Amino acid sequence: MNFRTTLIIIIILVGIVGTYFLFFNEPTEDTFKSDKPRIAEAYDLPREDIQKVRISYANAAYQTLTIEKDDYKAWQLTTPFKAHADSIKVNEMLDDFLNKQVRQTFEVSEYEQYGLESPTITVELWKDIESSSKTFLIGKKGINFSVYTKEKSETQIFLIESSALDDLSKSPTDIRDKSVIKFSPDTITEIQFQKPEKLSCQKEGNIWKMTHPLSVNADTEEIENILSELHTLQVSTFEADGENVTSLLEKSGLDKPRIQFTFKDQNKKFGLNIGAAVTSTTDKQNVYVQSVHQGGIYTVTDDIFRILNKSVFDLRDKRILDFQRSDTTKFEIQRGMQKIVGIKLDKNTWQLQNTQKTLADSQAVSDLIFGVDSLEAVAFVTDSTNNLALYGLDHPKMRVLFTIRGEDKPAVLLIGNNTKENSVYVKANNSEQIMRVKRDLIDKIAKGETWLRDKQIFKFSIDDPIRVTVKYNGGSQEYNGVQFTCQRLGTNWRLTSPVQENASNAEVNAILYGLIDLRAEEFVGEPFGGGKNELPNATTGFNSPQIQITVELRVQKVFTLQVGKVDPSGRYYARLQNKPDQIFLLDAEIIPKLKTKVEWLRAKEE
Q: Could you tell me which CATH class the domain 325-452 is placed in?
């Protein structure tokens, strides 16, 4: 063997021995921790006590990160730029590191061979920002998925899981909060839009007021919706921060924002500028925005333009009356010298104070009270109230008054002229503001008693009838001329005409249940009860009803329902024969349910 070959072999052996001592034969162990404490325990670093973190990297591709807790214990990114950090992600990163077990500790004299002279990652942790930090140096990887680590002030080194390298290798975007603006909606006390006109609102207690350009009540629900949507809106992409922002302002349209939105709570002021749309080849449309208080430029979905593109009309309170509808004990509708009065008897029962004191339709009364309380303007009239006559409000066509428990004066809605836009002019009695509202509810109010009276036709239970007689006249051929009578015998029903035999209890009861459930669509006649309903028989068809059902009760009362012709709206005229002036309309879908054949009534043999 020549000298050259011997030299090569010696070099190889030295390399093998060096590798063994570096990676396989660990340095002499000073103390072996069989219980393997975690970093948090070994260095008294509970994660919740950490106030500041700085992570530095040997790899220039990573930027040094500094993260600090603010006064509200939320994490803030302070370098390489200022931004809200995602506290959940920061806490997860810290937990991953602090919960790493200290596998082994070693006393060594040289640190370079373990990568600790120029560490891959340096982690600085402060429990108190004013005091010194605990600094951890993370070096080269060892065996068994470990990495050499050292606390800067100590001489010993230790091994932890090598996953720490991945856990701590973060970019600013990785730990950045994706919220467009980080704030608490409930704490906001003032908002302002500039687009380019100025629009300002301020919170007083739980109510929002508009302060510019008008001094009026604001739509509190609308403003709360704006803040709620803005609070949940997420950044699509982070475009620029710090010094890089200036060069992007013109391209993004943020040198001349379409909307400037600012708002504040008791301690902070926030701002957001809305710029141009992002050029995109996809259906998804984003826009550029800039956080004024932090300076960064982002892209977000164009929902933000919908959220913040608000007019004075959008933000002002559009309700006409504001009263506690659940505490309403009385309502009154006045038209000239006529009026309708409703009194609350109990939670769901109302009575109309007409000559007969009839029950009111609970759903119609609920629709009236709820409808007026939630009635909103579709437009505001800017003219002075000196022009009331122009809108029919100097002598309103109708007044609607609501008496509220505990209130000295009723809430009053004044109703004026109709408009060409299918709306009507209204105002509150205690307001100077004239508004236009949709006619739907007002048209119902104008129907008066025909809308408000109880629409249940029959008032009996299933066990009350003792005889039912049905006659059909006209209509389809299979029913024309059909007539039958059923008599109750004990608990069973029996056909007495045109045949005498047992009847099907289920079929007879089906007729009765149909009558019990029968409700008028609306009543026909004078809305305010000013006279009798004298529609001719030629119109109603009551001289020869298509359907006539007579029900005799145990208490010796007899009711006869008559169903006549179809009205112009496609509904059927109907009435009770003993109340000929109280004509009502039935939905066409009900009519087939009132028809029964004799063969259906015959009891099926066992």
A: alpha beta
